[in-house]
Amino acid sequence: MLTNASQVILRNAEFIENQDVLILNHEADTLAAELLNSAASVTSLALDFNHYLLLPQKQQKGLSSHFGHQLPTTDAEKRFDVAIIYFPKAKPLAPYLFNLAAKHLKQGGHLIVVGENKGGVKSLAKLLPEYFSTPSKRDNARHCLLFVSELIAQAPVFDLNNWVSQYSLSTPQGEITICNLVGVFSEKRLDQGTELLLSHLPTLEKRVLDFGCGAGVISAALLKANPSLSVECIDINAMALKACELTLAANGMQAKVYPSDGFNQISGQFNGIIANPPFHDGLAATNQIAKDFVKSSASSLAKGGVWQIVANRNLPYADTIAAEFGQVNVPAENNKYKLYQFNK
Fold it and tell me: Apex CA 25: angle with CA 187 and CA 254, to 5°?
């Protein structure tokens, strides 16, 4: 099933007929594969690991799918006739995607931008840099808008450093340097949940998992407290994973950073699982993800290991934790968050 935005792209397939097409920030469907019915070739870059996994993992002729913050070195110099951007939910990410698209577009190549009416795409004309022509609205269907523009001038060289913000962060473990990329949540201060977690860190040793690592705040604090830890940082967001790598490097720290769909890409057991998991609202789907996380944590925690997370107190963690671990310990809480801990 194609998303609404993908259906609108398919309605306008004449723009990609026999063209070499680049798709950036694609959604949770298989449009990239379906476009091969019209396009000469399709290269896709997913910024969400789950979206990447939906595409054929065995590369088929004409289709090349990737996950990351930019195309791999094998495609770094590749040029395309058409670039398609799904307008991002995190609006600050849009200029990054425009610059990345321009890097890979042939001069005079077409840029197609599609997004939900309420998702910010209506502001495209104000956001699109001058090296693109004024965008023309070509479709309005399925609650989405589709715009077409053209690369009319030489774009600035794409430099990742231009999209990084670096700042010092005070934590209970000491000062750490955070390197954050556009589109990754950051307040330039400890949010209440992470502060509660780091203020009550248990004694950790050996192999520790930071689930939903974001820009690497928790991992850097863990290694600040105990440099001997073997920390693994997982996330589904490519920008977050790269930001985490940059944060660790800025602090002279090392950890294993990689994408994982839940616990599906990890192996073995951990002596510690520490997280401010990215489940913040009360939607049924979010609750199920949270429950799956607790269940997977139970089987991935080594004997004698420590599991500790901080979560919005409105999320129904207690019953799930009790069902999986047999008990619920709440060593600390405030008016918004609860700290849950289990010692195996």
Answer: 55
Tell me if 290 sits within 8 A of 277, measured CB to CB. Answer: yes
- pLDDT of amino acid 263: 92
CB atoms within 10 A of CB 20: 20
Task: Please provide the DSSP assignment of 125-173 as one string.
Answer: HHHS-TTBPPPEEEEEETTEEEEEEEB-SPPPPP-GGGGEEEEEEEETT
Backbone region of residue 183 per phi and psi (left: phi > 0; alpha: psi in -120 to 50; beta: other values): left
> What does the mean pLDDT of the chain come to?
91
Reported as a single tens digit per residue, the pLDDT across 312-338 is 887 777 788 888 888 778 999 888 899
CA–CA gap between residue 318 and residue 183 (Å, rounded): 31
Residue type, 275: A
- What gap in Å lies between CA 166 and CA 186, rounded to an integer? 11
Give the separation between CA 328 and CA 324, rounded to whole angstroms: 10
Nearest by Cα to 204 from 106, 133, 304? 304
> What's the one-letter identity of residue 250?
A
User: Nearest Cα to 21, choosing from 7, 5, 8, 37?
Assistant: 37
The helix/strand/coil state of 293 is helix
pLDDT of residue 151: 97
pTM, full prediction: 0.93
pLDDT tens column, 269-320: 999 999 988 765 444 445 677 778 888 888 899 999 999 999 888 777 778 8
Which residues, 6 or more positions from 187, have their beta carbon under 8 angstroms from its beta carbon? none
